[in-house]
């Protein structure tokens, strides 16, 4: 089957029931999405399919019909995405394991809602778990990303 991931076409030989996460990591070398739970409950494996956040651990690769974007390609022209920049400025990451999924969910939120309320943030980020408890920093980073994005950074 052929998939478009991060702007590249990949021809892969995989069981259509294989989770997208394993196709990304094992067959395409995309190590940003992480395995956390395997049941779409933690969000560590979040990627975008046609711009919408999905849990790649539970999506069979044979059901993927759109363009897949991983954290490896959300920046533009060698620059960090405003959400990534905000994550650094707010020093969000502690262990860092969940951060790729958190960032991908935040990017999708800001693509949908330019200036989200606290309730919008809670709704969009509710399926992403952080064992380190950096939720206040995550919220601050999303709010900072709004400012950075508006400024064209």
Automatic annotation (TrEMBL):
Q: Does the keyword Signal apply?
A: no
Residues forming the 2Fe-2S ferredoxin-type domain are 1-74
PROSITE patterns named among the record's database cross-references: 2FE2S_FER_1, 2FE2S_FER_2
User: What name does the UniProt record give this protein?
Assistant: Isoquinoline 1-oxidoreductase alpha subunit
Q: Which domain of life is it from?
A: Bacteria
Per UniProt, the keywords (alphabetical) are: 2Fe-2S, Iron, Iron-sulfur, Metal-binding, Oxidoreductase
InterPro entries per the UniProt record, alphabetical: 2Fe-2S-bd (IPR002888), 2Fe-2S-bd_dom_sf (IPR036884), 2Fe-2S_ferredoxin-like_sf (IPR036010), 2Fe-2S_ferredoxin-type (IPR001041), 2Fe2S_fd_BS (IPR006058), Beta-grasp_dom_sf (IPR012675), Diverse_Oxidoreductases (IPR051452)
Q: Which Pfam families match?
A: Fer2 (PF00111), Fer2_2 (PF01799)
UniProt GO MF annotations? 2 iron, 2 sulfur cluster binding; metal ion binding; oxidoreductase activity
| Cited CDD domains | fer2
């Amino acid at each position: 089957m052929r998939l478009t991931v991060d702007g590249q076409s990949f021809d892969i030989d995989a069981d259509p029931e294989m989770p997208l996460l394993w196709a990304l990591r094992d067959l395409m070398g995309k190590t940003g999405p992480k395995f956390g739970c395997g049941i779409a409950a933690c969000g560590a494996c979040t990627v975008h399919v046609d711009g919408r956040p999905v849990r790649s651990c539970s999506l069979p690769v044979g059901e993927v019909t759109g363009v897949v974007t991983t954290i490896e390609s959300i920046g533009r022209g060698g620059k960090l995405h405003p959400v990534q920049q905000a994550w650094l400025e707010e020093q969000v990451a502690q262990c860092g394991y969940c951060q790729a999924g958190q960032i991908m969910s935040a990017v999708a939120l800001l693509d949908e809602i330019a200036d989200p309320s606290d309730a919008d943030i809670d709704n969009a980020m509710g399926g992403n778990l952080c064992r380190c408890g950096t939720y206040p920093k995550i919220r601050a980073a999303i709010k900072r990303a709004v400012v950075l994005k508006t400024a064209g950074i």
